[in-house]
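User: Fold this one for me? It's Acyl-CoA dehydrogenase family protein.
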Amino acid sequence: MTSTHEVLNQAPPLVGHNTAADPALREGVEREGAGWALPEIDELGRLAGSEEAQAWGRLAERVPPRLHTHDRYGHRVDEVEYVPAYHRLMETAVGHGLHGAPWADNRPGAHVARAAKFMTWSVDAGHGCPISMTYAVVPALRANPALAERLEPLLTNREYDPVLADPFTKRGLVAGMSMTEKQGGSDVRANTTTATPQSDGTHTLVGHKWFTSAPMSDLFLTLAQTENGISCFAVPRVLPGGERNAMRFMRLKEKLGNRSNASSEIEYDGATGWLVGEEGRGVRTIVEMVNMTRLDCVIGSSAGMRTAVAQAAHHARHRSAFGERLVDQPAMQNVLADLQVESEAATTAMFRLAGANDRAIRGDEGEAALRRIALAVTKYYVCKRAPIAVGEALECLGGNGYIEDFDLARIYREMPLLSIWEGSGNVAALDALRALAREPHTLDAFFAEAELARGVDARYDDALDRLAKELTSFDDIQLRARRIVEQMALVFQGSQLLRHAPTAVADAFCASRLDRDWGGALGTLPTGLDLAPILERTRTGFDD
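Assistant: Here's what I get for Acyl-CoA dehydrogenase family protein.
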């Protein structure tokens, strides 16, 4: 009998590697003061690269959460059921401090280490949503010192406790955020949820929230209208004493990606909440949370690109076509090198932002100013580039990349979310320009950082001068918002690569992204570049 099913010329699964072995990641960790964390980062990276952990991610995405509004007897329960793999992912993330743990760690670089671990633990993006929000809720919650004193130790504890219970009696807490409503979306001031003060100092909330991600969280920051305007409230799932709060889950969203994470519509039917921050200043209060989750959007986009490049390069090193391995063919080399440049530009900029965040938290006002503007422009640009880069990496696998059995389809579906979350493109771009108008010292901080790379590459100097000229006029500023913010993001990336990346990577970036005739599509690097060291960085740390 003739066999037709001998498997030849297929890449083996990319398992058994350390996802933290990426050179740009390790260099960023060392550079931004978190080298002391590399042993734990490596431990997490080896787990993330294992067959077991990758199976958890696939299963959690393949079997999405289920909403149970009532039990079998008809009692209202409002519970979301997850597969055990999801809880393993959460347990690992919390156990390694990807949630609120850095706020309890006084070591310089603690928030950089957390960023590296968040990027390393990229086996599933969905469970990263509650992890990210738990990290971000801590600084916002501090606007109510009495409440923060009781809850912060539970939000920073490295013990995952999924049991629904009185939040003050649990071993650890997971937090969420509930802002948007169907009539407003990003315009949260259009929210119609009301909050009525009670004699015990709490407020009673009534309203409908269009997006509440991770509804099984223990605590949510939410916005509601009071007599003095939009205010911020902390709303627990269970009240002190054990009674369930009056939160009703209406449905779970059917999403393009991020399926392992439940996103819901909820109603507050007389729910109890505690005021956080000054009444009428709710948007300002919750912005503390948004700034942190925006950083995680950059980290998540960088992680998705890095994983996609690793998969594409791994495939190209094992797959042959037309008598040669794909990785030895010039057209593929151009694509892979360009993907690596895109990934390193995002990762290097991200670690600079993580370092700025760490130092801003410790009171450095200059770093806080840089974080304010550079994070806004980087969030806009990197999250726009990620779907393009992952799509190109998927194409490197040909038809295999489009098949669900291969991880790139799952990663590709995830990428657009990070551009939408915490402000879609226009919101992010306009927020950056708003910062320039209201806080002009942020522009000074941005150019002070950019000037540190002047004189290294003439193409960069030209781009920096063009940007400065673009910002001399504010006519039609909203019409030009995306163009200006994209230029700022590219200058910021270029400044970091010229100062910190290998010469070949920085040269390729300047020859493409900063050149006036850049082709735009990935794989359009000009001739004359040294691609070999760039391609070598796609393989470091992977056992093949």
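One thing worth pointing out: Residues 132 and 293 are 6 Å apart (CA to CA).
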